[in-house]
Amino acid sequence: AQKVTQAQTEISVVEKEDVTLDCVYETRDTTYYLFWYKQPPSGELVFLIRRNSFDEQNEISGRYSWNFQKSTSSFNFTITASQVVDSAVYFCALSEALIFNKFYFGSGTKLNVKP
Amino acid sequence: ETGVTQTPRHLVMGMTNKKSLKCEQHLGHNAMYWYKQSAKKPLELMFVYSLEERVENNSVPSRFSPECPNSSHLFLHLHTLQPEDSALYLCASSQRREGQGNEQFFGPGTRLTVL
User: Fold this and answer.
1) CA-to-CA distance for B92 and B5, rounded, in angstroms?
2) Which neighbouring-strand residues pair with A92?
3) How open is the CA angle A81-A41-A82, to the nearest 5 degrees?
4) Quick check: B34 and B47 in contact, CB under 8 A?
5) Distance from C-alpha of A66 to C-alpha of A52, rounded to nearest angstrom
């Protein structure tokens, strides 16, 4: 079974629209970490955020915000007022505390922001 | 110098060639990783080195041979590859910290084409 599911394969929006990327995870650990990465066309995965399982406070960073809900095992990512430069593939990932080196990546969501 | 560098950025090789991919991290991290990213497939973890010792090998074919001479450098030696090995090979590093999340930082990748 997949540990991290990103059901949206591809999303297209027009610039300035808000968009939410969904991420659902599965783990039996009580301590775990969730991540979002951005992969622009250049190929490099850029780290965006880490969230600890014991901290459910939502986070906002500029136009980016993250909604972590343990009750639904979701860690969704919202971009407000999207821009063309936001076009990329976005990956959600899970790391379990007892196995520090193993990241479970979702299959990614490709976001197309059109001018 | 950027955090994680990889060379070459692009590589075309025949099935009988031997080549090596190089990764260098300038972040003072103690763990390094090789991932394979094929089109329309999730990121696949290939190898993990922690404190310069290999701790994980996800059943990768022997035609891929990693080497980690020190905590800053990681190599992937390639020989007698197959066309299906064509992919983007990503290197990452992280700092192993007990009980804390360990976000991985990625290099730009090597785009490998096997003819």
Assistant:
1) 9
2) A36
3) 5
4) yes
5) 12
Question: CB–CB of A103 and B101 under 8 A?
Answer: no
Q: Are A105 and B96 a contacting pair at CB < 8 A?
A: no
pLDDT tens digit sequence for B3-35: 999 999 999 998 888 999 999 999 999 999 999
Question: Which pLDDT does position A1 carry in this prediction?
Answer: 58
In this complex, do B90 and A103 lie within 8 Å of one another by their Cβ atoms? Answer: no
- Read off the pLDDT band of B2 (50, 70, 90): confident
Kindly identify which residue of chain B lies nearest to residue A50, measuring between CA atoms: B103
What is the total residue count of chain A? 115
Compare all CA atoms of chain B with the CA of A34 and give the residue at the minimum distance: B101
- How many CB atoms within 10 Å of residue B2? 12
Cβ neighbourhood burial of A66 (10 Å; 0-12, 13-18, 19+): buried
